[in-house]
Amino acid sequence: MSELHRATIVGVLVRLLREAFAGSPGPWMYFTEGGPGSGLLGTIDRLSAGEASRMSGPGGSTIAGHVHHVCSSLTLSVRELRGETTSHDRSQSWTVSVVDEAEWTALRARLRREYETATTALQTLTAWNEEALTTAFGAIAHTAYHLGAIRQRLAIMATASDGGA
């Protein structure tokens, strides 16, 4: 991949990852409603541990469970970008569902660190190939999916607290 192409692709990947986690910084957005705080980090920062631990949606999962799952998956994606062989079995990443305030604070901090680590991994990767591109785009799409799933749970919770109105 030429340096111009590498720089362009890395720039796009970082921009999409930023939108998924932090929201879109400018007038253009691709899958959030735009603006800082519209990504996963801003969405969950408004929640208490109790809200994050409330079961809702299909399968009775929790927002804390989704966040833990995204953390675990992002860790594996970064390892794959670094050339490590990882398991594609993500079932163990659903072991968290209920958190107290300290655990919720730690889980949100972990998610922020994993996002920062993934951003650095994208920016410093020198050997781009089909597998690396697939891993990077997959991590972004996966995060966007879980952002949507979390927002659906928040809508369900809001409707329930309004008495179904």
Question: What is the element string, with H for helices and E for strands?
Answer: HHHHHH
In DSSP terms (H or I, runs of 4 or more residues), the helix count works out at 6
Beta-strand segment tally: 0
Low-confidence stretches: none
Question: What is the subunit organization of this protein?
Answer: single chain
Percent helix range: 55-70%
What proportion strand? under 5%
Overall geometric form? globular
How would you describe this protein?
With 165 residues, this protein is mainly alpha-helical. The chain has helices at residues 3-22, 40-45, 49-53, 63-81, 101-124, 130-161. Helix 4 runs antiparallel to helix 6.
Write the layout of secondary structure elements.
Blueprint: H1 3-22, H2 40-45, H3 49-53, H4 63-81, H5 101-124, H6 130-161
Helix pairs in contact: 1-5, 1-6, 4-5, 4-6
